[in-house]
Amino acid sequence: MPSRFLDCADEELMIKALSELGSDIEIKNMLKIEEQVYLNLFEDKEKVYSNLYTQSANRISFLVKVLQKFTEERKVFLEKEANNAVESNKEELINSFKERIKQLNSRIITLQGELTNAEIELEDRKEMYSKLSDKYEDLVYELEMFKGNERLFKKLELETLFKFEEDLQTSLKTIAKIKNEVIDPVFL
């Protein structure tokens, strides 16, 4: 469910979204919806992280198994070729070994590249998770401030409280101005 408040890029857009609500009850209901969105985001981020980690771990495990299988195949191939050496032309045998080794080495290099890419992707996803987690924490903090969380306010420095109060007063003045602009044409 898209959030009208989560999608607000700055204070003016949030004020505009709030001003579109008709009453205090609608604002309180919207805040409850916002709080549920935050809770859902928190629950979803844990599931996403777990799924990403499991997928990456499975991919790495798969790549290790493939590398082991190719190593075993290479060993078996070399043993077979060694047993047939007596019957084969030495030059053909050497060329065959070289070609098969090139193919196997090429495949190993490809698999190592895939493994590296999977590890990089896992790190990128961990970083993305960390950023989302930080953003979530910031949004919860801001929501608690807007909800008037007394314990939170008691922990803040006086300068921060003055700044927040000033921002709220500016927002309230802007809301009042916009309300007057809407109400004035109605009474004219």
Word description of this protein:
The chain has 188 residues and is mainly α. It has one domain (11-147): Helix Hairpins (Orthogonal Bundle). Helix content is 86%, strand content 0%. The chain is built from five helices and no strands. Helix 1 packs across helix 5. The longest helix has 60 residues, at 24-83. The protein is rod-shaped and about 105 Å long.
Largest sheet: none
Q: What are the secondary-structure elements, in order, as H or E?
A: HHHHH
Measured as a percent range, the helix fraction is: over 70%
Structure classification = mainly alpha
The value of Rg in angstroms is 32 Å
Strand proportion, as a percent range, falls in under 5%
Number of domains: 1
Distance between the termini: 39 Å
Question: What is the highest CATH level, the class?
Answer: Mainly Alpha
Total number of β-strand segments?
0
Shape: rod-shaped
How confident is the prediction overall: mean pLDDT? 78
The CATH architecture designation is: Orthogonal Bundle
Low-confidence stretches: none
